């Protein structure tokens, strides 16, 4: 038996704002240098990924990605400084929260 959990940051109105989906998408952009490739890795349409990023930027009041148009090789995307900070903070928060939840779960449901 083990614990499975999902963490979301929500607005005061309880609307989902940021969680594992957007986190993985931004990680993918960081890894590939492309929102299109990051979206493909998540089995998500580029248009949906683009709209998700734009909605997040609007709600958070920060720019997450810079886009650069390209020639033959295509364009690229990279995280802004604020995008990197969000990625790092959420990643650390997620890991620490999961460690805490694992400890708490073990304290209550340790197999005897």
From TrEMBL:
Residues 24-83 form the HTH lysR-type domain. It comes from Carboxydothermus ferrireducens DSM 11255. SUPFAM superfamilies: Winged helix' DNA-binding domain (SSF46785). It comes from the Bacteria. InterPro entries: LysR_HTH_N, Molybdate_resp_trans_reg, WH-like_DNA-bd_sf, WH_DNA-bd_sf. This is Molybdate transport repressor ModE-like protein. The lineage of its organism: Bacteria, Bacillati, Bacillota, Clostridia, Thermoanaerobacterales. It holds the Pfam family HTH_1.
